[in-house]
Amino acid sequence: KNIVILISGGGSNMLAIVKASKRENWAANYQAQVAAVISNKTNAKGLALAAQQGIATASLDHKAFASREAFDTALAQRIDSYATPGQPQLVLLAGFMRILTPGFVNHYAGRLVNIHPSLLPAFPGLHTHQRAIDAGCKLAGATVHLVTPELDHGPILAQAVVPILPNDSAETLAARVLSQEHLIYPQAVASLLQVQ
Ligand code: GRF
């Protein structure tokens, strides 16, 4: 099985997954490895991190495409180019800041995963930490879920919860949530690999 991870920025979740795959020997235990890291941002810092880890990288600038569908089609072709014939592929969105078309999502149905920085179904979309603070929530967290055409609403695979502290800013809360993301995403992927 090979894993392709899509990023748009720092790639800290990607790195956590790559490190877990090496530490837990996913190749031997699940016949799985991270085959490539692809970004829609040509300057995404995560691309350098992936290359340092010996992972193949690619970037597709979404601004170079006439439509969302054209970008998604090119992205799918690139992802599929890393597939091993006859082997299932797992596509992981990790800080990937693009809304994907239903055609793309359906092409990878059941094997497309995302991590969202809130306790879904609360706070789908953006600025989740500020919204949780503004709502007076006492708890926040992250959710790993299968991706369906409806944004941030697919079947939940894993969640982590953190407290919202009285003097939290969106930044301090984001850091607390991100550290939990780095734990639950690799664990959720390993669980998926065990059943694939
Ligand atoms: C972070 O806001 C994280 O909560 C979300 O995507 C953003 C960037 O993550 N999942 P990463 O460092 O690029 O993995």
TrEMBL record:
N(1)-(5-phospho-beta-D-ribosyl)glycinamide binds at G11, S12, N13. GO terms for molecular function: phosphoribosylglycinamide formyltransferase activity. It holds the Pfam family Formyl_trans_N. NCBIfam families: PurN (TIGR00639). Its EC number is 2.1.2.2. The active site is at H116 (proton donor). Catalyzes the transfer of a formyl group from 10-formyltetrahydrofolate to 5-phospho-ribosyl-glycinamide (GAR), producing 5-phospho-ribosyl-N-formylglycinamide (FGAR) and tetrahydrofolate. This is Phosphoribosylglycinamide formyltransferase. Keywords: Purine biosynthesis, Transferase. It catalyses: N(1)-(5-phospho-beta-D-ribosyl)glycinamide + (6R)-10-formyltetrahydrofolate = N(2)-formyl-N(1)-(5-phospho-beta-D-ribosyl)glycinamide + (6S)-5,6,7,8-tetrahydrofolate + H(+). Belongs to the GART family. HAMAP family: PurN. GO terms for cellular component: cytosol. (6R)-10-formyltetrahydrofolate binds at R68, M97, R98, I99, L100, N114. Residues 1-189 form the Formyl transferase N-terminal domain. Pathway: Purine metabolism; IMP biosynthesis via de novo pathway; N(2)-formyl-N(1)-(5-phospho-D-ribosyl)glycinamide from N(1)-(5-phospho-D-ribosyl)glycinamide (10-formyl THF route): step 1/1. The record marks D152 as: Raises pKa of active site His. One of its GO terms (biological process) is 'de novo' IMP biosynthetic process.
